[in-house]
TrEMBL record:
Pfam families: DUF1540 (PF07561). Residues 9-39, 58-90 form the DUF1540 domain. This is DUF1540 domain-containing protein.
Length: 93
């Protein structure tokens, strides 16, 4: 199984976000809601330009793509919703 890629993310205030793309090897998707636990706000950018972000783990039991705490979607879209950055690919079982 390959790591699930993050196609895009509009959380431009995140240190790992450059040009609406995630540049950390793996994010974690939160517990009860499909939010990005790896999100960190800041003006100083981090991550690696040559890395396209992926999903390191998914702790959302109610998601149909969750297989043994790993994401089985072909790729995900992340978007700011209120005060969180949520997985827009989330589908309830």
């Amino acid at each position: 199984m390959e790591i699930t890629r993050i196609f895009d993310c509009n959380a431009e205030t995140c240190v790992y976000n450059k040009n609406k793309r995630c540049h950390t090897p793996g994010i974690n998707i939160g517990d009860d809601v499909p939010c990005c636990d790896t999100f960190m706000a800041g003006s100083r950018k981090a991550g690696f330009d040559d890395i396209s972000g992926g999903v390191g783990s998914c702790k959302v039991d109610s998601c149909s793509f969750n297989r043994s705490l790993e994401c089985s979607a072909s790729g995900i879209h992340m978007s700011v919703v209120g005060n969180e950055v949520d997985c827009q690919t989330y589908r309830k079982k």
